[in-house]
Amino acid sequence: MNSKKIFASLGVHKNLVEALLDNGIESPFPIQEATLPEAIAGRDVLGRGQTGSGKTLAFGLTVLTRLAFEKPYPGAPYALILAPTRELAMQINDVLSMYADEVGLKTTVLAGGMPYPPQLQALRKGVQIVVATPGRLQDHLKKGTIDLSSTEIVVLARSQTCR
Fold it and tell me: Which residues, including other chains, have CB under 8 Å from residue 144's CB and lie 6 or more apart?
């Protein structure tokens, strides 16, 4: 089975399959093979693995596939990815943003130690995917700048240093 058919058979959106191949990703990691079909179907999934095992793309491809071409609404993301640290939130967002344009989606990071104005601007314009740290998300919730009532997908990310 060729690379294109492997990712497609897991349910990954065709635009993302092409982008993966363009970036030299020809075959899924085991965690992606095990989780993508179930997660894309909307089932709850728990995945654990070492750094570099493909976890970010496992949940990232799921989020991007499920939300492909959804219209953004100001302050109301469809997906929330919670990360314990600003560094991990930024790393996750970097991976997602590489592929989000392929399916008409926007992402943003809400994290402490980063200025509010760009975060507020992104939320006002509308993003489908928010990657946030708990503290900064709580700040935005208290200020009323984000509404999670339309959020369909929640991912809890954890770094190896969090035990």
Answer: none
DSSP summary character for residue 140: H
Query: pLDDT tens across 34-45, in order?
Result: 999 999 999 999
Q: What is the Cα–Cα distance from 68 to 138, expressed in whole angstroms?
A: 27
CB count within 10 Å of CB 44 equals: 7
Nearest-angstrom CA–CA distance, 106 and 72: 8
Strands 153-156 and 107-110, by their bridges, are unpaired
Task: State the Cα–Cα distance between residues 160 and 150, nearest whole angstrom.
Answer: 30
User: What CA–CA distance (Å, rounded) separates 17 from 124?
Assistant: 30
Dump pLDDT digits (tens) for 44-103. Answer: 999 888 888 899 999 999 999 999 999 999 999 999 999 999 999 999 999 999 999 999
**Cβ–Cβ < 8 Å for 116, 155:** no
| Cβ within 8 Å of residue 66, ≥6 positions away | 40, 42, 79, 152, 153
User: pLDDT, tens digit, for every residue of 96-109?
Assistant: 999 999 999 999 99
